[in-house]
Amino acid sequence: MKVSFTSTQTPKTKPEDSQLSFGTQFTDHMFLMDYNREKGWHDSRIVPYGNFSLPPSTTVLHYGQAIFEGLKAYRCPDDTIQLFRARDNFNRFNRSAKRMCIPEIDTDTVLEHLKDLIRTDREWVPSSRGTSLYIRPAIIATDPYLGIRASHTYRFFIILSPVGAYYPEGFNPVKIWVTSDYVRAVPGGVGEAKTAGNYAASLYASEEAQREGYTQVLWLDGKEHRYVEEVGSMNIFFVINNTIVTPALNGSILSGITRDTVIQMAKKQGIAVSEKRISMNEICDAHEKGWLSEAFGSGTAAVISPVGTIRYEDRVLTIQKGTAGPVASMLFDEITAIQYGEKKDPFQWTEKI
Amino acid sequence: MKVSFTSTQTPKTKPEDSQLSFGTQFTDHMFLMDYNREKGWHDSRIVPYGNFSLPPSTTVLHYGQAIFEGLKAYRCPDDTIQLFRARDNFNRFNRSAKRMCIPEIDTDTVLEHLKDLIRTDREWVPSSRGTSLYIRPAIIATDPYLGIRASHTYRFFIILSPVGAYYPEGFNPVKIWVTSDYVRAVPGGVGEAKTAGNYAASLYASEEAQREGYTQVLWLDGKEHRYVEEVGSMNIFFVINNTIVTPALNGSILSGITRDTVIQMAKKQGIAVSEKRISMNEICDAHEKGWLSEAFGSGTAAVISPVGTIRYEDRVLTIQKGTAGPVASMLFDEITAIQYGEKKDPFQWTEKI
Ligand SMILES: Cc1ncc(COP(=O)(O)O)c(C=O)c1O
Ligand SMILES: Cc1ncc(COP(=O)(O)O)c(C=O)c1O
């Protein structure tokens, strides 16, 4: 439980809230701990943000044995800082660890260390509505060894990055491209784990989509290329005949924390939610019949991303005239109000630091 | 084409040939070059082997955008050193690069740099029969950025590791475990690329196989879980009714250089080779009828690995009484004789440095 602390001697200039972007600026400190077989996880420490010194033979650079998480802390109107569903993120982190043969961490202990770290860099948590402190915990395999096996040593780290408002000028619907050619994950694979290789595997199709003017890729199932899975870094929802429909967790989709947040919030607001297998043909059909009133993605970065256009093979579906719909807007407002501590949190999602 | 050279000031003690293992010891120098959008690949240099200094936000640590190769140099009886099919490895490297949105390299230039590097550390190339110099080229994504996109900067590196004889006491057949539950790759995925995440994705099933006393996993296709793909780090061959049968390259199997070497050598020796889709049921059937006389893997590390036992669901197939068969032995002898410069190389596979 004890964490050693080394303060930075060269504090950086904190960016203005208006100059924040995503994932480029980091705070003054980071949390580290190491793993070996004799000591388990050990040497917990908060130290100045700085480079790792890694041999070129380090396992993670060759075989990608690595996992990560993404969560946020928010500054409330009363100037307190709160975490949103951090425990759920660390539980998912441990599920990813297991799948990738990485030793699990103690979530209670790590959560305390995370709070210590944020307290240390609390001045870095931005305050404008829409801004937040993005938190990136990760574990990398560190054996200096080229054999293919689970590493015997690991480094766990948490870095913090103040991030700007995702929608400074209001909700901006995205255009998504359904790929029938490329596949991200398949039953029996590692799609459910938040592991490095899944993201590398998504780049080629993403670049193709971007060349065609689309923001992100919508992945279909790896077996039949028919059923909707998820978007690049979001889970996907459709509003069909006033019911919110989203692909059921099937082992190849990431179990998004925001996905669960959306489902709980929608139910609380009296909206029916259906988690099921859903094909692109059903989506096209619902669109044709006028039953598809909204589509949106869910993820930690943007919370809710309205989808204005879906391109699937030779069809282009325009949804809600390409603007944000009432369900997406309501969910965004209600969820962010809890995240920023503006509304009571009946779900116990938030935790003060 | 110009490469700068910085000599080590602290040369390491070279290990005895008898003390070599795989991928744990590295030579005194390494080759590096960097990529950015303005300069392309630049700053080619041979420098003392040493650690990389990487920000915790480095792309490769989070999103696994990385590729690698594995090839070997051999010391010949006349004390010259030769590379085996190096150009084929760098061509495959570029195919992996393309799939993973990594900028390609100029194979001719890099091959020259590799030769320079080996010349620099030529004393490290071991000389006992069976030993060799393992060569590991790799590219890692180096943007200090948490956004999910192809990195704009990269590092290319080559490290060298003297490796011991794979079969110091003669051919040792391996036991392989067919997994019907876990999947390594799928059509539309990145199975064909030599990219980091494919190896991380293989660890869980490998650990399961090892717990059951098996050496490696034999992967089936990701769609139907019926057709044979490849073994952990080897392609797979069966001798059925005097024909060598191996899974056809289908986009999810690595196109092994040794696989191609085996096919060319077998044909030259007058053995029929069939590249086709082959199911585990066909293999079991052939085994039952007494037609399956041998099975073996092919890969740079061991060249040929006879397979003595295959476990598939509730069946255990023992092949060639668990010993190495004549086809595997012949191929091993013929191929290694060329690699070590003991026999003429009519295929132009080898290249002196
Ligand atoms: C592949 C993928 N799907 C979905 C999500 C959304 O998950 P969450 O809501 O937990 O951020 C992410 C998030 O980062 C992701 O990487
Ligand atoms: C997944 C996989 N299959 C097959 C092979 C064999 O390829 P090669 O003969 O080029 O070494 C490797 C080699 O390293 C591999 O990683």
UniProtKB/TrEMBL annotation, chains A, B:
Keyword Transferase in record: yes
SUPFAM superfamilies noted in UniProt: D-aminoacid aminotransferase-like PLP-dependent enzymes
Pfam families: Aminotran_4 (PF01063)
Superkingdom assignment: Bacteria
Cofactor(s) it depends on: pyridoxal 5'-phosphate
Keywords: Amino-acid biosynthesis, Aminotransferase, Branched-chain amino acid biosynthesis, Pyridoxal phosphate, Transferase
InterPro entries, alphabetized: Aminotrans_IV, Aminotrans_IV_CS, Aminotransferase-like, B_amino_transII, BCAT-like_C, BCAT-like_N, BCAT_family
Reactions that this protein is recorded to catalyse: L-valine + 2-oxoglutarate = 3-methyl-2-oxobutanoate + L-glutamate; L-leucine + 2-oxoglutarate = 4-methyl-2-oxopentanoate + L-glutamate; L-isoleucine + 2-oxoglutarate = (S)-3-methyl-2-oxopentanoate + L-glutamate
GO molecular-function terms, A-Z: branched-chain-amino-acid transaminase activity
Stretches for region Disordered: 1-20
Pathway(s) of this molecule: Amino-acid biosynthesis; L-leucine biosynthesis; L-leucine from 3-methyl-2-oxobutanoate: step 4/4; Amino-acid biosynthesis; L-valine biosynthesis; L-valine from pyruvate: step 4/4; Amino-acid biosynthesis; L-isoleucine biosynthesis; L-isoleucine from 2-oxobutanoate: step 4/4
EC number annotated for this UniProt entry: 2.6.1.42
Transmembrane helix found in the keyword field: no
Purpose of the protein: Acts on leucine, isoleucine and valine.
Record family assignment: Belongs to the class-IV pyridoxal-phosphate-dependent aminotransferase family.
Protein name, UniProt field: Branched-chain-amino-acid aminotransferase
The species this protein was found in: Desulfobotulus pelophilus
